[in-house]
């Protein structure tokens, strides 16, 4: 139960905390890419437009863990498994997804060159689309509240932080109404 509550707390940082500590920043949106309440719009961004150089050397042996980071200590076996699996995002990152309860997934990525961990943006009922040869990550998640919202976002990894390139928000009656991303189950490119 404590682990579930910890995951929930870690998945709901304040917007200013995202920009300061997780490496997430907003970029200017195109005029047709804003909030939506009438139905999900599809992003026009393409993964191949954000190429990444592939890391060919051995992965780092040590994981850089902040002393106050209890999440990392709790899921260290999952992180070590991600190191063994190798890169699957932006050329040299391995995405670590940890199930932390009913519809709860905690997500980070580890830099295989340095062992440094980074937060992946998103929230409750998280879905991700990402590829080894691309710096673009597509994120879909639910924002539970009195007026639940389905959120779809595209982020570009710049080398130091995620920059939001697209966002669509759709009000729904229940978070279970949020559409799943169509790419789930496809083999990585």
Any overview of this molecule?
The protein is an alpha+beta fold. Helix content is 17%, strand content 28%. The chain has helices at 2-11, 15-22, 70-74, 76-85, and strands at 24-26, 93-99, 105-111, 117-119, 124-129, 136-143, 149-157, 162-171. The strands form 2 sheets. A 5-stranded mixed beta sheet has the order 1-8-7-6-5. A 3-stranded antiparallel beta sheet has the order 2-3-4. The longest helix is centred in the first third of the chain and has 10 residues, at 2-11. The chain is globular and about 45 Å long. It starts with a helix and ends in an 18-residue tail after the last strand.
Descriptive keywords:
5-stranded mixed beta sheet, 3-stranded antiparallel beta sheet, alpha+beta, disordered C terminus, disordered N terminus, 189 residues
Secondary-structure-derived class = alpha+beta
Question: Mean of the pLDDT scores?
Answer: 76
Helix content: 10-25%
* Strand order within the widest beta sheet: 1-8-7-6-5
What's the shape?
globular
Strand content: 25-35%
- Number of helices, where a helix is a run of at least 4 consecutive DSSP H or I residues: 4
**Total beta strand runs:** 8
- Major β-sheet annotation: 5 strands, mixed
Q: Please compute the radius of gyration using only Cα atoms.
A: 16 Å
SSE string: HHEHHEEEEEEE
Distance between the termini: 37 Å
Q: Which spans have pLDDT < 50 for at least 5 consecutive residues?
A: 1-23, 27-38, 184-189
């Amino acid at each position: 139960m404590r682990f579930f509550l910890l995951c929930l707390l870690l998945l709901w940082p304040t917007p200013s905390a995202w920009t300061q500590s997780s490496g997430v920043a907003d970029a200017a949106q195109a005029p047709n890419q804003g909030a939506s309440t009438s139905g999900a719009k599809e992003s026009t961004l393409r993964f191949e437009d954000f190429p990444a150089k592939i890391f060919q050397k051995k992965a780092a042996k040590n994981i850089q863990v902040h002393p106050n980071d209890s999440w990392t200590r709790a899921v260290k076996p999952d992180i070590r498994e991600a190191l063994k699996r190798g890169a699957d995002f932006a050329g040299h990152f391995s995405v670590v997804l940890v199930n932390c309860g009913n519809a709860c997934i905690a997500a980070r990525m580890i830099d295989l060159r340095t062992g440094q961990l980074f937060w992946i943006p998103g929230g409750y009922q998280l879905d991700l689309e990402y590829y080894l040869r691309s710096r673009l990550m597509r994120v879909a998640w639910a924002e539970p509240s009195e007026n639940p919202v389905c959120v779809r976002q595209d982020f570009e990894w710049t080398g130091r932080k995620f920059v939001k390139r697209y966002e669509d928000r759709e009000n729904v009656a229940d978070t279970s109404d949020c559409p799943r991303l169509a790419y789930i189950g496809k083999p990585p490119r």
